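Figure 2 data, in text form.
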Amino acid sequence: MSTAVFPPLIELSGVNKHFGDLHVLQDIDLTVGRGEVVVVIGPSGSGKSTLCRTINRLEPIGSGTIRIDGEPLPTEGKGLAKLRAEVGMVFQSFNLFAHRTVLQNVSLAQVKVRGRGRAEADARSRALLDRVGLASQEDKYPAQLSGGQQQRVAIARALAMDPKALLFDEPTSALDPEMINEVLDVMRGLAQEGMTMVVVTHEMGFARASANRVVFMADGRIVEDRSPEDFFGAPESARARDFLSKILKH
């Protein structure tokens, strides 16, 4: 699907990133339109998660430019905190505060970063917990929840900031198989509602059903950037054909 349908929201141009001698991102050009769902797939070590983390500057880049809504990424201070509120991130490891309740986890950044009053933040949190199917769990602590429930709390926390976009870095990879679908259901709902999403995942069913585009990476480069129908139906590169032949057998 062409990004012409979607006005640009996230733009990476000539992005390079090294970890020591390892060139993990090589001349990355990628545009994600407003309301678009882009799923990033590829073999382990291909640079997928690093790409995702550069978009809200959890990883600084060596060269190139990244713009969000036309503005270059801030490097520090209040601008960086604002960026991370507007470009939310959901990690594979949940990253919830163990000593705070579910409600407190979702409300905290609203108060600290968005400047909302506690009552307003809690009301927003409760609405979002209801949306992800966890309204009855607000007084529990993360350790009292399943992995799938914790990940849904993490999604609610990111949504509470009213982000322009959400980044998902392998959000289901730490979950038991029976919990994966409850998280993917929430993500499918967000996609249908028009949330801009960049999703690093091995869930090919989600990529087929919910992505506008599939970006296939290998060796730090974008090898293919196509619609799900085209990519899964007739991958152009030998690397993608090899990857799909292995992953779709399982």
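Caption note: The mean pLDDT is 93.
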